[in-house]
Records
---
Amino acid sequence: MQQTEVILVDRDVPDPLLIERAASLIRAGQVVVFPTETVYGLGGDAMQPHALERIFAAKGRPYSDPLIVHIAHLDALALLVTSLPEQARRLAQAFWPGPLTLILPASVRVPKLVTAGLDTVAIRMPRHPVALALIRASGSPLAAPSANRFMHVSPTTAQHALADLNGRVPLILDSGPCEVGVESTVLDLCSPHPTILRPGGVSLEALQRVLPSVSYHAKENIGAEAQEQKAQTAPGQLLTHYAPNVPTFLFEGPIVAVQRAILAEIQRRQAQNERVGVLIADEDIAVFAQSGVHIYSLGSERMPEQLATHLFAGLRTLEEAGVQCILCRSFPTQGLGAAVHDRLQKAAGGKIITVG
Ligand code: TXA
Ligand code: MG
């Protein structure tokens, strides 16, 4: 156990002295929790194997899951990749800095702990001013997974990160809630066709405007066991990657049928004295207002950015309210809705109820 210090850092004008305190820890091979526009990251020097070991240890994450390398300038690519495909150049120009991670051919200098032994490396340039300042001051790219314990929901506030990592990291930089709220989109540029491995903060539609050949195959709604088996062929694609500590059920289908099914499930569980939480949209509040459950609304169903921003806070808030199950409605999958849907599927870990 070590003392975890949380310090407030202004998002837009980060105090250079505070950034330098964090950067000196990074240079010394330590790890630091820092904000990005997507979720909080648990960062360490990507080129120091000892720092990488600390990241895996603090999270309780297996070495088989590769890390994303965060850069502040395109010059850093020379150290990290063997070549930069023309497609990568165009995407970087359009979306960096921002919530897009590109899978590129790894240079031999990238530590094996970063790539999990693959010959590719995941790279992104975040747009959060504190993240960029920290990378620059550290003088090295930062490897950073989301700053949660392995298998738990990603943190979108410093308090979420503290709840998971208190006593396991020396320092957390707190710049308030993350703007995007879901992790970066992971795009594989090393397969024959550019493929989204994880939907995230840059939508499929936006990527296709720059590179029409980008494709995304949403996970099928198959059982938990089959998913886990499939997951073993794709690192990091574990089904229950984002699960809250409470059993979570995702209801899919036409919204009126979904609302009706959730109400019936609430009654059934309340009859057994269960405390129930529901994760819904503003448009559903009236339907559940009288049902005696904990309600968390992610915002308007017509605003996927809003849903994404509040998703992880919603799961954690219900968890902390002490509910015994979380019942979620599904949301439209346009734009960032695809990422929201993917995270809800993972939170449910195969417990998906299709109605109507
Ligand atoms: O928004 C984000 O991406 C956040 C912030 C902190 O930047 N980071 C994040 O890292 O979500 P993490 O470690 O929780 O997720 C990284 C994902 C995993 O699904 C991992 O399998 C995938 O990226 N990944 C990393 N390297 C890869 C590679 N070489 N090939 C395929 N997938 C890779
Ligand atoms: Mg993660």
---
Amino acid sequence: MYVAFEGIDTAGKSTQIALLKDKMPDALLTREPGGTPLGEKIRAILLESGGASARSEALLFLADRAEHTERVIRPNLQKTILSDRSFLSGIAYAHVHEKLPVDVLLQLNRFATDNLLPDRIVLLKIDESTLRSRLDQKSHDAIERRGIDYMMAVQRCMEELLDLLGIDHIVVDAAEPPSAIAETIYNYLKEGLTNA
Ligand code: TMP
């Protein structure tokens, strides 16, 4: 089962993945961008330097995703894969940043993944004041520097996409205590493993 964790920056995806690893020790943890040697290089280009034009940025994320899908996701589909981000981030961040049409972005993502999309998506949804206070407590990468309005629009886009795409998903309140969120997600994933 291929599970993607989604949500805007500071929603707590990595914390949740780490908590779930304790409950699912056999799960394979991975991430986008990153997750492969090439992907780590692309990640550094995108997040440390910034400044790529919007279309080249979208294509670099797609190159990362193509590599990640081919080298990490596809060969491990018999395992439980917990991925920090997926094509959903790919579409939402690019759509809001550049106003590229969703149908074009979806097609590009289908090309990059050769049609391999997550079986389940966990969306951690954060409210604006929690986002604001969490962002105040950390340094910002090139994308986070686009600001709160941008991120809230990305989150709305992620929710709309989930309604549109028909992929099995759960939306969780990111302001709840981490252990309670982990329990909710674990119960949701357990049900998927039983049905698989
Ligand atoms: P993160 O690993 O801390 O979540 O950082 C990745 C950043 O890259 C985050 O701001 C979201 C952004 N992003 C995109 O803009 N497009 C994408 O396709 C992906 C996977 C991430």
